[in-house]
Amino acid sequence: MTNPEPADDASYEIARERSDELHRTIDDPDALGRADLRMLTGDRPTGELHIGHYLASLRNRVTLQDKGVESFVIIADYQVITDRDAVGAIGDHVRGLVLDYLAAGIDPQRSTIFTHSAVPALNQLMLPFLSLVTDAELRRNPTVKDELADTGNRPLSGLLLTYPVHQAADILFCHGNVVPVGRDQLPHIEQTRVIARRFNRRYAEGRVVFREPEALLSDAPLILGVDGRKMAKSRGNSITLGASADETARLIRGARTDSERHITFEPERRPEVASLLTTAGLFLGADPRALAEQVGDGGASALKRLVTEAVNDGLAQHRLRRAELARDPAYLSTVLREGNSRAHEVAETTLAQVREVMGMAY
Ligand code: TRP
Question: What is the number of the ligand 1 atom nearest to the C-alpha of 166?
C-alpha cells in the first residue's frame, strides 16, 4: 500500500500481532496446532526475482520448510494478466522462478511447487467463492485500487477486480493457514478470511470446512531499486538473482545516491544510501549503522564497493546452483509436472468436499 490510511494501520497492528503469535507457534515444536500448519505462498511470473525477494521471502520459505511446516509454493500465472494486456515471456519467467526456488533450497520432495493455471479444481473454487463477496467489497480493496492506479488509464478488468477471490482459492484449495506475504497483500488475506467464514456459515451450517488463514509478515525492510524507487520485477531497476557478479557491480555502481560525501544511516533523510546500507547489512548479518561508520568518509564509491561484495558473496552459492540447474531443463519440467499433479490431487479432494457440503455431489 502506498498510502496506508489510519484504519489500515489499525488492521495492520492486528495482523502484526497474529503474525507474531504465528511465529511463536512455528518456533515451538510442542505448540498447540503446530502440526496443523500448512504454508502457501507464491509469486507472479512477471519477471525475474531480485535480492528483495531473496531477503524478504525466499529465505523465509526455506526456513519454514526446514522447520517441518508442510509447504506449497504457487506460481500465480493467471495473476500476470490482471494489470496488462499480454502474458509476456511467461514461460521464461515461470522457469526462472522454479530455478530460484530450487537454488534457494526449496526442496520439491517436501514443498509442492505448482502453477495455478494447471489446476482446474483450484480455479473452480472461484465460482462458489464469488457468490460470497460483493462488488463494493472488491472495489474498496486498497491493493486492487493501487494496482489499477499503476496501470494509468486502463479500465478495471473483471479479473483485476476479482483476483483477490482467485487468490483466496489459491490459499484455501490446500487449506493453507500460514501465508507469508508483504504488507501490501494483507487486504487479500483479510478477504480470504471473510470468504472462509462466510462459506462455513452459509454453505456448511457453521462446520469448519475452511480455516481462516493468517499472514506471516517478514521483518525484512523494503529494498529500493537502483533508481531509488521500490525494487520491482517489472520495473527494470532490480538486482536480479540470476545476474552475474559483473552485472551486479555495474548496477550498484550506477545506483542513485545523494551528494553528501560522508556516509550515514538516515532512512528518512537519505533513503537511497540507507537502502544500500540495509542491503549490505542483510547479506552480511551486520548493523547498517555500523557499516555506515565503517565507510564514513569513503563516500558513495566505497559504500558501493562494500555493497557489491556483500551481494556477490551472499549470492555466490545461489547463483552457482541456479546456473547448474539451468543446464537441466528436463529436470525443471519434471519438478513442475509433479508439483502440478500433487496440487491437482489436493484441489480435487477439496472440491469434492465443497460439492458434498453444498449438496452438489449427485
Ligand atoms: N499476489 C501475490 C503477489 O503479487 C502472489 C500470489 C498469488 C499469492 N496467489 C497467492 C501470495 C497466494 C500468497 C498467497 O505477490
Answer: 9
Minimum CA distance residue for ligand 1 atom 2: 43
Cα 108 to Cα 350: distance, rounded to the nearest angstrom? 22
What grid cell was written down for 274?
540507507
Neighbours of 237 (CB within 10 A): 19
**Segments of 31-101 assigned E as strands:** 38-43, 70-75
Please give the grid coordinates belonging to residue 229: 524507487
Specify the pLDDT at position 171.
Answer: 98
Q: Which residues contact 182 (CB under 8 A, 6 or more apart)?
A: 56, 57, 217, 218
pLDDT digits (tens, 9 = 90+) for 122-143: 999 999 999 999 999 999 999 9
Residue 234 has pLDDT above 80, yes or no: no
Strand runs labelled E in the chain: 38-43, 70-75, 111-115, 178-181, 214-217
Give the pocket of ligand 1 (CB within 6 Å): 40-44, 74, 76, 79, 167, 170-171, 179, 181, 185
CA–CA separation, 125 vs 170, rounded Å?
A: 9
Q: Is the pLDDT of residue 269 over 70?
A: yes
CB 88 within 8 A of CB 46: yes
Name the residue at shortest CA distance from atom 5 of ligand 1.
Answer: 43
CA of 216 from ligand 1 middle (Å) equals 13
Strand partners, 214: 178
CA of 5 to the centre of ligand 1 (A): 22
**What residue has cell string 545516491?**
257
Q: What are phi and psi of 212, to 5 degrees?
A: -85, 120
Average pLDDT, the chain: 95
pTM more than 0.90: yes
| Bridge partners, 230 (sequence order) | 224
